[in-house]
Backbone:
């Protein structure tokens, strides 16, 4: 019997990194697909989410999993950091060590 992992909960899917392993994380997030079925779907370009091949590794973007599962990120902005300008957006008069 092929290895099978139970489907992930919404909390577990939201906790995944930006790029997840195709097996077992992405397959589990897509409803507990077995290893054999997952690799057959990937080989046929018929996986339920787009896959990214990095060498022999198969990865899936977390954003694609969320879209497939119709899960939205938490919109609570209370914990967001205040954006700061990057070096590219600072004008020359504000840069330290530049000659005018």
Residues:
């Amino acid at each position: 019997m092929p290895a099978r992992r139970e489907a992930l909960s919404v909390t577990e899917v939201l906790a995944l990194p930006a790029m997840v392993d195709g097996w077992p994380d992405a397959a589990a997030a897509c409803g507990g697909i077995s290893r054999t079925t997952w690799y057959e779907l990937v080989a046929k370009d018929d996986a339920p989410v787009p896959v990214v091949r990095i060498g022999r590794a198969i990865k899936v973007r977390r954003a694609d999993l969320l879209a497939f599962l119709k899960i939205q990120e938490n919109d609570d902005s209370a914990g967001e950091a205040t954006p700061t300008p990057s070096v590219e957006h600072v004008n020359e008069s504000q840069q330290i060590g530049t000659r005018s």
User: Anything to note?
Assistant: Residues 75-98 have pLDDT under 50 and may be disordered. The radius of gyration is 20 Å.
